[in-house]
Amino acid sequence: MADKVDKLLTDYFTGDLQRKISMRVDMLNTVQEIDENTGGGRAQYKYSNAVENKMITEESDAELVALRHNKKVIDTWTSGMDKVRYQVMKEMYCRHKTWDKIALDNGVSRTTMAEWRKELKFSIEGWGLLITY
Predict the structure, then answer these.
(1) Do 22 and 75 contact (CB within 8 A), yes or no?
(2) Distance in angstroms (rounded) separating the CA atoms of residues 31 and 25
(3) To pair with 120 at 20 to 30 A between CA atoms, which of 23, 38, 94, 127?
């Protein structure tokens, strides 16, 4: 893989990006806060705000924000693709087939595949990816 955008696209098409998001959310939700109340007083006006705390934790985590931003940018650009182009990109980045095999299976030339790949990478790079690798 040539660069970080290729790594990000590979993670997206193989499903690793979504797994990283899920794992980060799970990790943030399992971290327990340390009770710093060492006094013997009784807590007044105590109420549970677990949902708000969870939202604040997820929204303030830089890695999770970056992962979600990257996924949203790629989702936006891939949602407008036709089926053949999306299938070609998926097969290219999943690395299960050679470019020649992908070209034969989908009826496109290697030059066209390279142009589609370059166009996708250029489009995605323009939206300020927050690379976390």
Answers:
(1) no
(2) 10
(3) 23
Looking at the domain 4-26+59-125, which fold is it?
Arc Repressor Mutant, subunit A (1.10.10)
Amino acid at 129: L
Residues 6+ apart with CB under 8 A from 21: 64, 67, 68, 71
- State how far the Cα of 49 lies from the Cα of 46, in Å rounded to an integer: 10
Q: Which of 98, 91, 83 is nearest to 117 (CA)?
A: 91
Residue with tokens 């927050």: 130
Q: Is the confidence at residue 29, as pLDDT, over 90? A: no
Maximum mean pLDDT: which of 30-34, 35-39, 41-45, 65-69: 65-69
pLDDT digits (tens, 9 = 90+) for 67-84: 999 999 999 999 989 999
Cβ-Cβ contacts under 8 Å for 54 (sequence gap 6 or more): 28, 29
Q: What residue spans define the domains of the chain? A: 4-26+59-125
**Separation in Å, CA 93 to CA 34, 39, 61, 87, 123:** 43, 57, 28, 10, 16
Query: Which position has the higher pLDDT, 85 or 40?
Result: 85
